[in-house]
Every structure is written in C-alpha cells, then in structure tokens.
C-alpha cells in the first residue's frame, strides 16, 4: 500500500473496505446469500433446460388468424400466438401496415411511420369521440384533478424536474390550441372569400 | 368488464370492454385481483413507444384468479390464484429452451427484437394488459405460477416485474464480493437492485436519485448510501470522489427512458420523442463506472436510437449487460428471499388506487406527486 493521499485509481490496490464481511453480515439482512456467481438464477445466461418450462409441445399449435395480421418482415411467418387487441383500421391502420410490410425493424422509417400512425390514430379517435355520448375530456382523462387532491405544488417544491413539468400541459393542450386557431383562421378566410 | 384504456399521450380513462376470450388451446382467462403501474407504463402513457394504439389496455404487473382455461391447459385449474410474469413466452422456442424467456420468438409477430409483454403496445405483440378486470393469459402452462399460501398479494404482484427486474439487474452486474455498486434510480427497480446487490456480496451500495422520499427509502429499506444528484454540479465527478477516483465496480441503470438530470436530453428524448428515450442515466453509468467495470441496464428504452456514449464505453473497456427480465427464472430463489425477509417488495408500495381512478393514478405516478414510489391498482374496488 502506498501513501494514503494517493487515490486507489493511481496505485495497485484498493484501500481496505469501510466495513468487514462480519460487519456487513451483521448489518444487512441476507448479505452474501447469493455470493457465488455460479449459483445465481440467471447464470449461465444460456442454460439449455427445455424440460423445465412447462411446455408440452415441440412447436405450439397455431392460433387462428382472423384478419391479415401485421408482422415484422424479420419473422419467417406469423408467430403461432399473437395479440388480437385493436386491429389496424382507417388511415392509421394503413400507415401501420405500410411500416410493417415495407421496412424491417432495423430501419428508422419503420419506427417513425409507426409513431405517425399513433398520432393519426389519436387525432382520429379524438375527433370520432365527439360524435359519441362520451367525448374525450382532457379534464378527466389526464388525471389533472390529482394536482389538487395529491398536492401538486407541495410535491414539486424544490424539485429540479419541476421546470420541465410545465411542458406537459403544452404537449397535451398545444395541438388542440393550434388546431382551434387554425380552424378559426380558416373559417375567417372562408367568410372573407365568400363576402368578396 | 371495466378496463383502463389509452386515449392518446397523457390521456387514459376506464371503459367497458368485452371480457377476453380463449383464442388458443393453451390460453387462460384470469380475473385480475391486483395490478400495479410500472415505471415503464409511463413510456406508453407519454406516447414514447411506437405502435401504442388507441383503446389499448396497459398493465404487465398483475395477479388474479383463473376463470377459464383452454383445452390443452394441464397445469392450472379454474379457481387457482396465480401470479403472471410480465413476459409472454412459449417455453419451447430456441430462446425459451435456453432460459431467455423475455426473448421468446413465438409470441410477438410485430417485432423480433423484443418478446411478448402484456399491455405494452403492439411493438410487444398487441396483447391487452392487466389494468382491467380480466385478461387473456397465453401459454398458461408456461408463464403463470400459483401464489404460495404464505405470500402477501402485494409481494406477489411486485414479483411479476419490478422486484424481479431489480434482482435481475444486480445479477447482470456480475457483482463480486466487496464491489462498490452504484444504483442509478431509487424507484421500485432500483430499490430492489440495491437490496439484491448486498445479497450478492457488495461491499458498498450507493443509490443516486433526486427525490427525497425515494432516497430516504433507499436508506431505510435497502441500507444504502445515497447521493442527491441535484446537490452536485456534476454527479459523475462525485461518483469518482466517492470511489477513490476509480469509479464504481458496477453501475446498475434502473431509470430508463424518462431520465432527468439533463434538460436537453430529457426534453428531446422524453417530451419531443426525438430519441428512444432520455439516456442521461445510461451515460452517467458509462461515465461513473470504473474502467473494465460492468454496466447493468434494466431501465427500459424505446426502439428509436438514443444519444448514448458508446465511445467512452469502448475506451473504458466496459462490459454492458442488459435484457428484459426473464421473470420466471428468478422466482424460486426470490421466493426464498422474500420469505426470509431479505427482499421486501411491498415496502415500496405507497399508493393504492381503485381502477376507476386510473387517470389520477397515472398522473400522480408520472409527476411523482405525494411521494409516490409504487402505485397499485385495485380492479374491483368501489
């Protein structure tokens, strides 16, 4: 051991630990229970044990495909089991199908198209909701009431992340405000054009 | 049935949906008795995960009672109380046969780079999740396990992901006796990762966050030293000082895509979705670990590229280890640790919301109001 004023990084050995094994064992419940790396559940990473999984098939029976299920082009075929929630529909569905059909997961276009599909889906669903008995309501769906009931101001006092929380209302309401502004401007232009 | 439903970024509500049906002979239908909101659900909630469809029901942490089983199910019966790993997996593909349950190749047609996950967008297979009264559970003979009589329901639901992921994160760190382990993030995964690091022989465990209630929990529940990164001009320099300028032997990144600590990264990654998430914590991990050390990543990121410092990782000779957790592989040992009191998942639970209040639950968790660390969802509460 060299002089103590030189940090460990610059010499051969680490400084002695702050606590001994006995001290750690006395202070921490279960300290060292998994000390042996070879005896940890995920060691080794690849452990061939197909008889332990509960599967009683070589290849699973295929789930019925009730519509042309979109799939990654990196798959050889439709997987035998898949989710059937929210089938693609409308313009957003067309965008999503294009993303899956045309681009592999390795292409940024695949993911960007899926995000575009998400936004189209959201806007279309919001607009459709206004033709129902339960239109979208940012007041209830954002849970903003909890700002009052769960101490919004108190909880954020002194927190560094509060500075970007102000962006959240902008992200939620901004597109609506912009759309409303665009609609007003468009209507005004239309009225002016008709008056001429 | 009543179910949480996604209505667009930052907007969710509870709707009436059809009870799911058996779609495959090895399916089960489970009546959910307790669910949780995971930090990674917030990535969906904020619109970060591609192909998150309107109408989708989130929720990959849940327990319940078997209501119906398909014709080929052998290991479960109606009425069994089960805990369901967040992974959907077949048990028979090349990956499952080798224990990589989170990388199953037979359950997610939408992507090959990720396995199947309940209620986690179509990018992970398009399965509705468990923040609802009922859920379809594929491969009922492979994933679910009957809840032991002695186990508390809140421990059981946390073992389906958050606790298992923390424990797995410590294993990925390949901790050796006496190692200094830094855990970035004192959320549910980070807290269990800190507890688990001691089980694997760590000599020091330092947890980094900026939320005081979480740092307090890291001290009391995980016996860890804590650092509030807001108190330092540069947390990486502080980590070097704390470790005699070596850097930590192991850093466990338990934050993921919505990391704070750098306004530019956070806004571009999380708010504007120009990256697959904000890699602040990942970069701190790369910078804060010692040369030749190991970075374990269990924080979740989206598939779009992020600005990660791979040059530093290369030059430092780091080992980067990561995966979605193969949950069921962790359970036998974790059950022992929970029973012995070495791991205490339910100590993290701070809030319990009725399903009907799900919008408030997400907002409270997302904005970290009222000291929220881990919220549970009660599907049948009034």
UniProtKB/TrEMBL annotation, chain A:
Region described as Disordered: 1-58, 134-160
Biased composition (Basic and acidic residues): 11-25
Name of this protein: Uncharacterized protein
Organism: Geodermatophilus sabuli
Automatic annotation (TrEMBL), chain B:
Necessary cofactors: Zn(2+)
Alcohol dehydrogenase-like N-terminal domain: residues covered: 25-145
One MF annotation (Gene Ontology) recorded for this entry: oxidoreductase activity
Superkingdom of the source species: Bacteria
Family: Belongs to the zinc-containing alcohol dehydrogenase family.
InterPro entries xref list: ADH-like_C, ADH-like_N, ADH_Zn_CS, GroES-like_sf, NAD(P)-bd_dom_sf
Protein keywords: Metal-binding, Oxidoreductase, Zinc
Name of protein: Threonine dehydrogenase
Gene3D superfamilies: Medium-chain alcohol dehydrogenases, catalytic domain (3.90.180.10), NAD(P)-binding Rossmann-like Domain (3.40.50.720)
């Amino acid at each position: 051991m060299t002089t103590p004023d030189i940090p460990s990084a610059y010499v051969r050995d680490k400084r002695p630990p702050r606590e001994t094994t006995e001290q750690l064992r006395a202070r921490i419940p279960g300290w060292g229970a998994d000390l042996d790396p070879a005896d940890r559940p995920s060691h080794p990473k690849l452990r061939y044990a197909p008889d332990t999984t509960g599967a009683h098939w070589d290849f699973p029976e295929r789930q019925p495909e009730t519509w042309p299920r979109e799939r990654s082009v990196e798959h050889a075929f439709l997987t035998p089991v898949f989710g059937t929630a929210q089938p693609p529909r409308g313009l957003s569905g067309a965008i999503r199908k294009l993303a899956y059909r045309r681009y592999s997961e390795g292409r940024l276009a695949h993911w960007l198209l899926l995000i575009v599909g998400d936004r189209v889906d959201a806007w279309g669903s919001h607009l459709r909701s206004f033709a129902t008995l339960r239109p979208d309501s940012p007041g209830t769906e954002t849970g903003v009431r909890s700002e009052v009931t769960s101490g919004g101001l108190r909880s954020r006092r002194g927190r560094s992340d509060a500075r970007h929380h102000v962006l959240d209302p902008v992200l939620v309401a901004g597109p609506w405000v912009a759309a409303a502004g665009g609609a007003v401007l468009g209507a005004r232009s239309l009225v002016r054009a008709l008056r001429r | 049935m009543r179910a949480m439903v996604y209505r667009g970024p930052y907007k969710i509500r509870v709707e009436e949906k059809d009870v799911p049906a058996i779609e495959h002979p090895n399916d089960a239908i489970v009546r959910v008795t307790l669910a949780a909101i995971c930090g990674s659900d917030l990535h969906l909630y904020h619109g970060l995960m591609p192909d998150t469809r309107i109408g989708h029901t989130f929720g990959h942490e849940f327990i319940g009672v078997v209501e119906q089983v398909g014709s080929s199910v052998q290991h479960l019966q109606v009425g069994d109380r089960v805990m369901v790993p967040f992974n959907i997996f077949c048990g028979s593909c090349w990956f499952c046969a080798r224990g990589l349950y989170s990388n199953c190749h037979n359950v997610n047609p939408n992507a090959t780079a990720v396995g199947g996950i309940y209620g986690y967008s179509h990018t992970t297979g398009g399965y509705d999740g468990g923040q609802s009264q009922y859920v379809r559970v594929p491969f009922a003979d492979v994933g679910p396990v009957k809840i032991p009589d002695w186990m508390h329901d809140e421990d059981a639901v946390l073992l389906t992901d958050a606790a298992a992921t923390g424990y797995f994160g410590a294993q990925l760190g390949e901790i050796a006796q006496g190692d200094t382990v830094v855990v970035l993030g004192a959320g549910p995964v980070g807290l269990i990762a800190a507890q688990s690091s001691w089980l694997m022989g760590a000599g020091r465990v330092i947890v980094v966050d900026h939320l005081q209630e979480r740092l307090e929990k890291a001290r009391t529940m995980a016996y860890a030293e804590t650092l509030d990164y807001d108190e330092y001009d540069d947390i990486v320099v502080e980590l070097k000082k704390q470790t005699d300028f070596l850097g930590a032997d192991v850093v466990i990144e338990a934050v993921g895509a919505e990391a704070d600590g750098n306004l530019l990264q956070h806004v571009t990654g999380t708010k504007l979705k120009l990256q697959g998430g904000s890699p602040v914590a990942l970069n701190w991990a790369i910078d804060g670990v010692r040369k030749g050390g190991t970075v374990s990543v269990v924080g979740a990121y989206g598939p779009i590229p992020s600005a990660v410092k791979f040059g530093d990782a290369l030059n430092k000779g780091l080992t980067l280890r990561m995966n979605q957790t193969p949950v069921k592989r962790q359970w036998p040992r974790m059950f022992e640790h929970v029973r012995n009191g070495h791991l205490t998942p339910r100590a993290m639970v701070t809030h319990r919301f009725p399903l009907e209040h799900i919008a408030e639950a997400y907002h409270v968790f997302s904005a970290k109001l009222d000291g929220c660390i881990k919220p549970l969802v009660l599907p049948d509460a009034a």
